[in-house]
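Quick illustration, no need to memorize.
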Amino acid sequence: MTFEPIWGAIIAWYLFLAGLGGGAFVTSAFLGWRHPEAVSMRKIGHLVAPIVVIVGLCLLMFDAKAGLMNPLRFALLLTNFGSVMTWGVVFLGGFTVVSLVVVALDFMKKRVPVWLDIAGVAFGIAVAMYTGALLGVCKTFPLWNNALLPILFLVSAVSTGAASVLLISIFKHADEFNRAGVLKKFHFCLPVIELVLVAALLFITCTNSTAGWSAVMSLLVGQHAPLFWIGLVLVGLVLPTVLETWLLFFSPKEFEESRKAHWISAASDAGVLVGGFLLRYLVVVAALPLTVVVPML
C-alpha cells in the first residue's frame, strides 16, 4: 500500500520561511546585545524577517485553495482560540506588524525601542515553535506528533535566520561580519544541537509505532535517504560544522578575515539554509499515518 503526503513542497517552504523570518529577527536582537556596533547587520535581519514571512504566508494562501477563493475563511481562524492554527495567525500577524514597524524605524534612522525588540523576539520564537506545533496537531502521524519537533524547528529557525544575516553581510558589510565573532561562535553551535535533536526525533519516532518505524526507515534507507544523508545531514549539518570549526578555531586570524575565508563562510551559511529547508521538506513528505484496523463483524 502506498501513501501520498497530505502536504508537499509549498507547505515545506512556508514552514521554512516562517521560521527563517523569526530567526532573522532574533539574530538582529542578539547583535544589538553582543555587537551593538553592527548596525548594518541588524538592519539586514530586520529587513529579511518580514519579507520572508510575508512570502511564506502568500505560499500558504496559494496552497489553501479553498481559503484563496473565499478569504473570509482565513478571518474565521480567529474565532477558535483552542486551535493551534488560531494562535498561529496571532503569532504571525503580531510578528509581521512588529517587524514592519522596526523596518520603518530603520528607514527613518530612528532607534528601535527595547520593548519593541523584545516583542519581536517573543513573536519570532513563537512563530518558529508554532511551525512545529502545527504539524503536531495531526496526532495520527508519529513523525509529527512529537514534543521534540517544535524545539527542533526553533533551533533550526534561529540557525537559518542567523545564516541568512551572516550570508548577506559577507558580501554587503564584510567589516561588520569580521567583528561579529560572538554571533559566529553561537551560530556554530546550532547545527551540532540540531543534529542531536534530529537523531533523538528519529529514535523516538521509530520506537513508538509501526508507522513511525516505516517513516524513519524511508529517511534512513528508503526513498528519501539520498536527500536525508546528502542534503540534510552532510550539506546542511556536518559540512557547516566542519567548515566553521576550522575557520573559528584552527585557521590563522589574518586568514579568517580574508576574502577566501569569506567564501568558505558563505558556503557554510548556504549549506545551513539548504539543510533548513530540507529538514522541513523531509519531515513533511516522509510522515506516515497510523493504520487503524477495524475488526470484521
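The radius of gyration is 20 Å.
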